[in-house]
Amino acid sequence: MAEIVFSSWQGEVIDNRGKAEADAAVPKRLSVPAEFDMGEQIKAFMGWDGFAVMDGSVDIVDMCICYVEAVQKESCGRCIPCRVGTRIILDTMNRIGSGKGKPSDLEEISGLAQYVKEGSKCQVGQTGLKALLDALSFYREAFERAIVQGVKPGEGKYRVSVTAPCMAACPTKLKIPRYIEEIAEGMAGRSLAIIREDTCMAGTLGRVCVRPCESNCRRANIDESISIKYLKRFAADCEFEKGGRPAFVKAAASGKKVAILGAGPAGLSCAYFLCQMGHGATIFEKLGEPGGMAAVGIPDYRLPRKVLGFEGDLVSDLGCEIGYNKVVGKDVSLDELRREFDAIFIGVGAHSSTPMGVEGENKGFEGFIPGVKYLLDINMGKDPYPQGKKVVVVGGGNVAMDCVRSSFRVGKPDVNLVYRRTKAEMPADPVEIHDAEQEGVKFHYLCNPTRIIQKDGKVVAVELIRMELGEPDKSGRRRPVPVPGSEFVLETDILIPAIGQAVDMSFLGADSGVELTKWNTILVDQDTFQTSAPGIFSAGDCETGPDVLVRACGNGKRAAWRMDQYLKGIDLVPSETERFNDLFSKVKVYQKDENLGIAGGDSRIQLRMLDPEVRKWTFDEAEEGFRVDEAIKEAHRCLRCFRIGMVAV
Asked: Is there a smaller number of Cβ atoms within 10 Å at the N or the C end of the chain?
């Protein structure tokens, strides 16, 4: 973190001007990195909750002029205080900056800025001038000197970006308030176009995203978060139901070719952006359809295959060739791809299961089926073990939830889930847990398998031991500890471990030059996504380990940006947008304890679902999307929490 000369952030004022270094205070509510880019020092930061000075040579007047200009530019113009007020303030600030300011200007600016702050309808006006007001209070002498002496401020070097709490939390960095605002205006098509600036998988993410954005939604500080995920689905479904196809603008053909391994979220996202940049892309996919693990690992009642198919076709429409049923390492080797293509992207999924480490799991007993294989069989339209009727699934993640909920849908009447911690520690989406409970899954918490019990080579039961929670482990959750002598038996004829997934890396071969981590994932430079083998890049589950779909989409996009630089022969460096994303992650855009001073009580609209006793026996989509009136009403709940950040460098 940079050393602070002065800061005012979230009401905490730190003034180290004139103090010895040993006596300098450190802000508790603000952390600003020392550099914006390599070798580019951050001299000051201005934002939605105040400002900070790290270098006393910064010209406060010039910096405030540039910041107000950014605020005025971002004003949507839909309310008079922000639209007119910021324009008048900017004109007055520019007059001061030209050496023609008047003593009365400062009081007029302060009064008008306060009026804009209190009278604007959205956060651009409500927070945009907070830093200016603080600067006028704590650096007033700088403004007075500029007016009295007629001194023109020195021109600094600034970088400006716009974010929002929800945007900062989104791995794909979707422009969430913008696309929600278009829905509120009844413009679903324009909303989808904004979404597609950052992802090709609007319909997929609108159904199965784990929605980190909603955990960072300021609306939740009042009543409930905006239904960001389902509004995205609404925009995608409007096009899907009408049968339309978007028109994309592509750069001129570069003549460069990229091989992409895997048509999962990471591979599709990478191809989507590379093709728009003018590069040729060919995907090699071992399955017969797009989506990867999303297609064969997520049941149709959550994510219909037709949605994935449609979004795979979008990538094909851009000119990407997708070769299905092509196994790298069998149908084509990595060396062959290296010779034929200018670069390679590895985005293969985690199609294997990790072992439980219990007695009997490697004996090949009938009825013992790893979770990934269980879901693959079901998604391919077959019952994995028709003679089995009682199911026990071990695990607490979303794969475990998919296994138990899918079991009913292939005719299993007795479905159980065993988890070694309590419900509070389960990593699965709370919505999935709730839906599984509604459908009649029996949950056995604080239990863990110790032994598979079989008869004539078939699973008949599993021995479990009761657990208690001890000290927290590396995940921050309390470690489950076995209770001696508490073993008991749970009868079952199907036992499904769903505790983790793994990636089969055998396709790399011994001499690929692609290094692996100790977790058997591909080692990449986290800034460039390039592996230890030049020209080979990677993202998705094979790089992070089994992770959420939205992160695979986001990292596939970022990898495409780096590959574009590589193919053009320029330095692989983060863009200004990415540098701001890193900055905002340190500054913290969302304040969970913020008191917005707004009356609540406007609850979010919930999707209608099939009755539990109906939906549990069918693979029809369990949730019905928003109607037009519902989507517009839900979108109007958005507070438009745009935040403007600026650094002096």
From this structure: N
